[in-house]
Design goal:
five-stranded antiparallel beta sheet, globular, binds adenosine monophosphate, binds zinc ion, HIT family, subunit A, 3 helices, 25% helix
Length: 112
């Protein structure tokens, strides 16, 4: 747990969130500012700042990927997009790794 990390606080239950599903090493909760009808964040319970750090713990990285699949199955998503924003210039605003799982509408490709 890293002090002043919002998602560490959500994992610890210190900040409320609408939890969708969880596993031993990951937590999925609804994004507070949804960009699609379904917008869930899947985070490692361990503090890792971004996808690069997540890759340094292959067991946790695999658990997060499995969590993304579990969330999609749980919500009955037949199509969805998974995004890891990495770095402020790419839109990362919370520096605790998280996968955005977006679905529930035609997302289009390439993204606008
Ligand atoms: P990013 O900009 O990729 O770092 O994504 C951070 C995401 O966290 C944004 O989509 C925010 O809407 C979302 N967010 C910020 N605060 C909360 C919160 N308290 N509960 C759930 N999602 C949040
Ligand atoms: Zn954290």
């Amino acid at each position: 747990m890293v002090e002043d990390c919002l998602f560490c606080k959500i994992v610890a239950g210190e900040v409320p969130a609408t939890v969708v599903l969880s596993g031993a090493d990951w937590l999925a909760f609804e994004d507070i500012g949804p960009k699609a009808p379904v917008h869930v964040l899947v985070v490692p319970k361990r503090h890792l700042a971004d996808i690069g750090e997540l890759g340094s713990d292959p067991a946790v990285a695999a658990a997060v990927v499995a969590g993304i699949g579990a969330v999609a199955r749980h919500l009955g998503l037949s199509a969805y997009r998974t995004v890891f924003n990495t770095g402020a210039a790419a839109g990362q605003s919370v520096f605790h790794a998280h996968a955005h799982v977006l679905g529930g509408r035609d997302l289009g490709w390439p993204p606008g």
